[in-house]
Design brief:
Helix content: over 70%
Number of strands: 3
Number of helices: 19
Strand content: under 5%
Order of helices and strands: HHHHHHEEEHHHHHHHHHHHHH
Shape: globular
Strand order of the largest sheet: 1-2-3
Structural class: mainly alpha
Length: 445
């Protein structure tokens, strides 16, 4: 018994020694490629935030705390403190307290509904002095951790309705609370977790059904419902005729065909009700602007129209840093946040836009690479959660500035002005980097 006790003590001490040694060399294990890309994006974003507010006739210093660029520097400092804390913590802390993070953020989402400040029609902010704090931004990484924690359990498989239902609940609770706050754009980000689920074994049939439903919704906005329904019925009739001629028709096939026609028709017929009865007036205007911004270029189509003008005016090389006329005269609203890509297009042209997009694509590919090389299932799933969130923000933010997506008001990661988003994206990325630095030490559930 004494020998067994001594062996156990030696194992404990050996494990402790290895962990301490691992902590001592963690800087060399960090993925500096990802850190360099993130730092480049943050620096470029900061300079463009200054470009938005810059006025040549005024004596403005980029670090002036009264300017957005000065305020962003303060959030850089707070983000660095957060990174330092993440590096100090044991890498297993995030696995152990994943549901704890999720619970705390959920409570904050409820609290902001009761006591929050309304900003731009959304009651999603806590305001403490001159600092505003948006829990919805932090709900993204908390939900990513909770999904990773649940799916990493050995008994959880995504081939049964129970597991799918629990994951849907984990995603749905914060999304529903954010919708109640009036911030539908942030809530839509949670739909991108389907990428994580697909990577972990969700049937592609479910993914395809979801994509088809979204495509039908968008097509119904662009075309007459009568045309779409007629096309569906024509396709169904053609398939049925083929089966009859080839004598391959069966009751099961007829039932499947009926479901594949009836459900899409139901989706098509529900679009008008969703737009007119469910959406708020400002959301309806965003849909109208997406469908046809030229119909009211001075009204609901103003943002997108001016955004396209600003980007197009930059040409190949742009007008030069601090030389954007559309920027200077505030033609594009929310240009420091939702529409900051316009500044890149106008001042740095196609070349600058291409470089920025290339940086984001490289970052996304790097994160997927990091996720795939994890030995821990929890870390891998979380990595895909990080990639999914960043992909949605990158794709939709840039897409809405050029009219490819409706304007839903989400920031460009590390680039747009905003303390909550900068801090949340920093935490999101560096939790993954912390896990990656210890990827050889497998978490066991």
């Amino acid at each position: 018994m004494h020998g067994s006790h001594a062996y156990g003590r030696l194992c404990f001490e050996g494990r402790f020694y290895l962990l301490k040694r691992g902590e001592d060399i963690k800087a060399s294990r960090l993925d500096w490629i990802t850190i360099l890309i993130v730092a480049t994006l943050a620096l470029a974003g900061w300079l463009n935030i200054y470009a938005v507010v810059y006025e040549s006739q005024l004596d403005q210093f980029i670090l002036d705390i009264n300017l957005n660029s000065g305020k962003q520097i303060l959030w850089f400092g707070i983000s660095i403190v957060a990174v330092s804390l993440i590096m100090i913590l044991d890498f297993r802390f995030f696995d152990s307290f994943a549901f704890g993070f999720y619970g705390i953020i959920t409570l904050l989402l409820i609290a902001v509904l009761l006591t929050g400040t309304v900003v731009s029609g959304s009651k999603s902010w806590f305001e403490i002095g001159f600092i505003r704090f948006q829990p919805a931004e932090f709900a993204k990484f908390a939900t990513a951790l909770a999904i990773a924690k649940y799916l990493s359990k050995s008994q959880v498989k995504l081939d049964n309705l129970k597991s799918i239902g629990i994951v849907a609940l984990i995603v749905g609770i914060p999304a529903a609370l954010i919708i109640l706050q009036g911030d539908t754009g942030s809530a839509l980000v949670f739909g991108t977790f389907v990428i994580v689920l697909y990577r972990e074994g969700l049937s592609p049939v479910i993914v395809i059904i979801g994509l088809v439903a979204v495509a039908l919704f968008v097509l119904t906005l662009l075309f007459s419902p009568l045309i779409l329904i007629s096309a569906l019925l024509a396709i169904g009739a053609a398939v049925l005729l083929f089966w009859l001629i080839s004598k391959k028709v069966t009751p099961k096939k007829l039932l499947t065909l009926g479901v594949m026609i009836v459900i899409p028709i139901a989706v098509i017929l529900s679009v008008n009700w969703v737009v007119t009865e469910v959406m708020q007036p400002h959301q309806q205007n965003r849909v109208k602007a997406f469908v046809n911004p030229e119909a009211d270029p001075l009204g609901y189509g103003y943002n997108v129209t001016q955004s396209k003008i600003a980007i197009g005016s930059g040409g190949l090389l742009g007008k030069g840093f601090l030389e954007g006329t559309q920027t200077k005269f505030d033609f594009v609203p929310e240009q420091s946040t939702d529409f900051i890509f316009c500044t890149i297009g106008e001042e740095h042209g196609w070349i600058g836009s291409f470089i920025l997009i290339s940086l984001f694509v490289t970052l996304l590919l790097r994160i997927v690479f990091l996720a795939e090389r994890q030995k821990s299932k929890f870390s891998r799933i979380y990595g895909y959660g990080v990639a999914s969130i960043l992909f949605f923000h990158f794709m939709v933010n840039i897409g809405m500035t050029i009219g490819l997506f409706p304007v839903i008001g989400i920031p460009l990661p590390f680039f747009s002005y905003g303390g909550s988003s900068l801090l949340a994206f920093t935490i999101l990325i560096f939790i993954l980097l912390k896990m990656d630095a210890h990827r050889m030490q497998v978490l066991v559930h």
